């Protein structure tokens, strides 16, 4: 698993090396969604809602039936895409980049808002555009909150909601990496290069911080072109010519 991860990272490194000029773009852009929704989601992630004191006591079946009766539907799930990156969690730990959460797809495929929005505030005051579906962070905030000992902290509330459902439905990510990307710092500031760098200077600059990644790369088939090629039709024989053996490496 770890090995695969390194390989994956190494391949990314290789790709990015050849796309240096677009490095910062590659990190910020998201081909499947517009920058607009990405920016909006980022802003949305920073909001902190006031803590809900009183929660309406209601069993899950009763709640599910009542929500169906109110005709709460996918149309009410207006924000279709969230970045989950709560300042409440960040104050404690910040190991990863924001978690992408496709709300629209989840709301549509579950067909029942109450599987996630499992409780609501007693009153109808405006914690949200809809009191039935206030944000998780309106009730789940820091862990071991002295005033609300029965409530999980926000991180645990997410983990214990998201992961068991993926397990049960045998769909959606279960591994840490499936939801969490590395917190990658802005490379525009990190990378220091002369005006018109030659390729060797670029490689050397990356190696300043990425020596381990480079060493991992040197052991992959992508670098060595060596070993069995099991998944390529008619090419399953051992390949012994490559940078690891007979070919010269010009970079
Ligand atoms: C199904 C998705 C999912 C999976 C799988 C998952 N997490 Fe998370 N995790 C989340 C969400 C959502 C948050 C809350 C993000 C936020 O609001 O900052 C979170 C928050 C965290 C945080 C605190 C935020 C941070 O950036 O440091 C840590 C640490 C963390 N997860 C570790 C793990 C580890 C370790 C694993 C694997 C054992 C894992 N997670 C698996 C969804 C997931
Ligand atoms: C798979 C879990 C899941 C399902 C199913 C789901 N939601 Fe959500 N919803 C979330 C999460 C997570 C958030 C973001 C919570 C946060 O920021 O703390 C959210 C946020 C919302 C918000 C925004 C609240 C605000 O104040 O901004 C609304 C409205 C909402 N959901 C409505 C719905 C409706 C309506 C349905 C059913 C048609 C639904 N959701 C189904 C997980 C879900
Ligand atoms: C109106 C307040 C409120 C909101 C909003 C809320 N929760 Fe909870 N949650 C609670 C309380 C209180 C508990 C403690 C156990 C209980 O009473 O069910 C809890 C418990 C949990 C648990 C533990 C298992 C369980 O069901 O008891 C999980 C997981 C959880 N919440 C996830 C979420 C997620 C994810 C969201 C957002 C989609 C959310 N909660 C929104 C109040 C809330
Ligand atoms: C009610 C069950 C359920 C819950 C709760 C749930 N998921 Fe999922 N999730 C799914 C299913 C089913 C899929 C597969 C959807 C597909 O492939 O079309 C999925 C897919 C995903 C994917 C991969 C597809 C994509 O959108 O990129 C991510 C990431 C994800 N879920 C994150 C989360 C996070 C984060 C949470 C908690 C805030 C969560 N899920 C809660 C059922 C759930
Ligand atoms: C001053 C230090 C520094 C320099 C110079 C630097 N990086 Fe990074 N880079 C980091 C750190 C820190 C991370 C985040 C931790 C990690 O992923 O190892 C990172 C992450 C990355 C990632 C994401 C890896 C992942 O796991 O998602 C890529 C790709 C990357 N760097 C490429 C490059 C390239 C290409 C260069 C040279 C043009 C370069 N970096 C130069 C410090 C640096």
Describe the structure.
This protein is 42% helix and 5% strand. With 251 residues, it is mainly α. Strands 1-2 form a two-stranded antiparallel sheet. Strands 3-4 form a two-stranded antiparallel sheet. Helix 1 packs antiparallel against helix 10 (199-218). The two termini are 29 Å apart. Mean pLDDT is 83; it is low at 11-32. One heme C (HEC) is lined by residues 52, 55, 116-121, 134, 136, 138-140, 150-152, 157-158, 160-161.
Break the fold down into its secondary structure elements and pairings.
Elements: H1 2-18, H2 23-28, H3 35-46, H4 60-69, E1 81-84, H5 87-90, E2 99-102, H6 103-110, H7 154-169, H8 176-179, H9 187-190, H10 199-218, H11 221-224, E3 227-228, E4 238-239
Antiparallel strand pairs: 1-2, 3-4
Task: Return the CATH class of the largest domain.
Answer: Alpha Beta
Mean pLDDT: 83
Summed up, the helix count is: 11
Describe the biggest sheet?
A: 2 strands, antiparallel
Could you tell me which ligands this complex binds, including any ions or cofactors? heme C
Within the largest sheet, what's the order of strands? 1-2
Helix and strand composition category:
mainly alpha
CATH-defined superfamily of the largest domain: Cytochrome C3
Percent in strands: under 5%
Order of helices and strands: HHHHEHEHHHHHHEE
What's the CATH topology label of the largest domain?
Cytochrome C3
The CATH architecture designation of the largest domain is: Alpha-Beta Complex
Total domain count: 3
Task: Report helical residue fraction.
Answer: 40-55%
Shape: elongated
Q: Over all CA atoms, what is the radius of gyration?
A: 24 Å
Separation, N- and C-terminal Cα atoms: 29 Å
């Amino acid at each position: 698993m770890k090995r695969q991860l390194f390989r994956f990272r190494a391949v990314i490194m290789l790709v990015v090396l050849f796309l240096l000029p677009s490095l910062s773009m590659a990190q910020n852009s998201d081909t499947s969604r517009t920058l607009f929704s990405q920016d909006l989601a980022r802003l949305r992630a920073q909001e902190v809602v006031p803590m809900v004191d009183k929660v309406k006591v209601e069993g899950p079946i009763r709640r599910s039936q009542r929500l169906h009766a109110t005709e709460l539907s996918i149309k009410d799930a207006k924000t279709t895409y969230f970045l989950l990156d709560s300042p409440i969690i960040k104050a404690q730990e910040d190991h990863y980049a924001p978690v992408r959460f496709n709300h629209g797809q989840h709301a549509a495929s579950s067909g029942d808002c109450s599987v996630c929005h499992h409780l609501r505030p007693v009153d109808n005051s405006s914690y949200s555009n809809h009191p039935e579906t206030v944000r998780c962070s309106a009730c789940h905030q820091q862990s071991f909150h002295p005033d609300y000992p029965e409530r999980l902290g926000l991180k645990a509330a997410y983990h214990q909601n998201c992961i068991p459902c993926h397990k049960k439905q045998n769909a959606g990510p279960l591994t840490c990496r499936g939801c969490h990307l590395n917190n990658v710092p802005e490379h525009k500031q990190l990378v220091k290069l002369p005006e018109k760098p030659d390729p060797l200077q670029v490689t050397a600059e990356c190696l300043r911080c990425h020596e381990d990644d480079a060493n991992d790369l040197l052991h992959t088939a992508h670098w060595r072109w060596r070993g069995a090629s099991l998944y390529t039709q008619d090419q399953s024989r051992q390949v012994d010519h490559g940078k690891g053996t007979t070919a010269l490496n010009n970079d």
